[in-house]
Amino acid sequence: MTVSLKQSRTFSFRDGTLKDEAERLVVWWYGPIFKNNRLRSVPKIHIFLRTIDHENNLGGVMRRETVLTHLGLLRIGSVWEKGVSSSRIAYEERKFSVSFSPGGWRIVTLDDLRQSGRSLYTTFHDSNYLPQKNQHKTYLIEFDLPDGKHLLIPCTEFFIRVYGRSSEIKRVLATYSWEEVKKRLYRPLDAPVSPGTWPVKFTYHVHRHDAILLAHMLYDPYAKRAAKYIYSQFETSSTPDEMLLKATPWFQGSGEISVSGVPIDGGNTFLGLQILGCTQPDGATIHREREKSTTVPATDGDDAPTQFPYHQLQDIPDVIDLTDDEEPDHGSSWLDLPEDEFVILGKPRAVLDKRYTRKNVPDTRGVPVPGDETIFSTGEPHGSGKGVGQASIHAPITLESQGFLRDMWNALLYLQSAYPATIRGVSWFTFEDGFSTSPDPRLISLEPFEIDEEVKTTVANWVYVDTQTKVPRGVLVIRVHVLDQTLYLMEIQRRPPKPRAGGSEEASKPPSYKGLVFTLSHQGSFEQWLRQVLSNVRHVEGVVQKLVRHCPGFADTFKHPKSKKEQIPCEASVLNAFSKVSIGRSDLA
């Protein structure tokens, strides 16, 4: 049996699972979880690998042990040779609409599938994905799909990818009782909870993007039950040395989930082997605060600058030696390791960071100093002198883009949900519809030049988003009521990049355009001014800065910066537009 591979991010690490293997291996399946008798703060898990030669022919199955926290790196389908992975199986990628509420899914076993006459055969490699043996026992979540078909996902994969972004969350939930979970993940709030908000303060051991799961575990009984159920399975299991994990959705409602995997059962079921992304749950605005630990006692009260918790390694070594047999030393270096990105599908949840006002206190944190550890562990610090540092593994998030103009609209809706007291209204405009709050914005089409108008060919062609089909460009016009002002934003539709031979995008992308933000001295002049702008913008080929001096009020242009701190695409662009009329993020809070 032969499979196709694709290149992936090169990653090197040598935990006990792979460092002594001479053969080329591919991670094939996750098995039972069991207690770790040496590194007690991290459960272990059986994983199944297959040999794969350099012609990509699959061979026999072998069983190995690793720790639960390493699964974010040992993804199903990843190919490993001598501790290095730079390729993975090219599974089919699909996105599904599902219900995460009870009734939209169920927990099943492989035996359940076989007994109901459903086949694990897949045309992907012309064989059953798993052999007809009991050694691959596991639980799976089966989602019902709108077309009557089904989506299957191994519970372990669902737990690893959907229960927060950091491996620390999974480690703690699978290792400790609920009271211990709260001690290790949460810190007391500094103020009472305001109505309509979910404030959450958590330890520096977890990642900032864990805030949504942590808030739901704190305020949503449904999420709390799902989280507590993880450890309770260890307590009640009749075979604690080989426990089959059940992980259920921790939030309710409809949404989307993106996976890669293989079709089975004649195409009636899709077996999702890797979760690529998922919808975030709706709910109250989350106010996020991450504890900033200090290695020395604070002496200046609440305004004292905080220290880094440990010596942080800034440069990830080429080969990372992760151990599953030793716990990290107290006070050791820590290494932040990214695993595969996780795509947020649809509208992101509104999450606001607590901001600190320092009263003229100098920042004395300094630069993190690297330590001399060469071995790292994802366990809980215990003892010292072993030369073992601490590894923090997390999945960075990436935001799903729905096209530039739609991203601008969605960013404004997101900010309105985050700051409803100050952003009181967001609406789009066309001359046919007037102002509308419909979730799907419409564009105003630019008017093509008449044949007898004397304009340059480049100017005449600029009006079209597609010069072959003569489809005119669109313009998105948005009105925003923010604080005591009424703002208008205007964005021009971009042409898509032209494909070149081979199917990739050409090296030089189409020109980008600045956005236009304006206010009016008299709101009654809006349509007249807008018609003037829509006509003149054609002559200047979208260079809107040439139009601002004619505005009957105030007008300025703004760029579209990107920020790593964005909660949604184009959030930084909208805030940049607001800044042109002297509105900053601090004014919105």
From TrEMBL:
Q: Per its UniProt entry, which superkingdom is the organism in?
A: Bacteria
Question: According to the UniProt record, where is the region Disordered?
Answer: 287-306
What protein name applies here?
TnsE C-terminal domain-containing protein
Q: Which organism is it from?
A: Vreelandella sedimenti
Q: What is the lineage of its organism?
A: Bacteria, Pseudomonadati, Pseudomonadota, Gammaproteobacteria, Oceanospirillales
